[in-house]
Amino acid sequence: MIDFRKVVRSFRFAGQGILDLFRFENNAKVHLLIAGLVSMVGLYLQLSRTEWAIILMQIGLVWAAEAFNTAIEKLCDFVSPSRHPQIKAIKDMSSGAVLILAIIAVVVGLIILGGRLLELFQ
């Protein structure tokens, strides 16, 4: 049998994690701002459902990657508060994963939004 109290509690913890991510992490705030701007442009350009699905998937992937990166960095700092070359490598790779997704998200945004803007001005 499902214990719905545990499910609700888990959602509350997850929600707190999302709030903390956007409240305390500067890069997450930047991603949130960019997502808001992209969403406003998307509304203005009246994107199709498929275009919205692709854009929202990119936004979600970048946010999730930022959350994983933040969690990994916090865990690394907890496990090894002093500088360590392996911890540095782990943190660099983790932030590199976010950068990869962010670059791909920009490319997807340019393809969808840029294409729509070109159509609009021709």
TrEMBL record:
Substrate binds at E66, S95. Mn(2+), Zn(2+), Cd(2+) and Co(2+) support activity to lesser extents. It comes from the Bacteria. GO terms for biological process: phospholipid biosynthetic process. ATP binds at E25, E73, K91, D92. CDD domains: UDPK_IM_like. A divalent metal cation binds at E25, E73. This is Diacylglycerol kinase family protein.
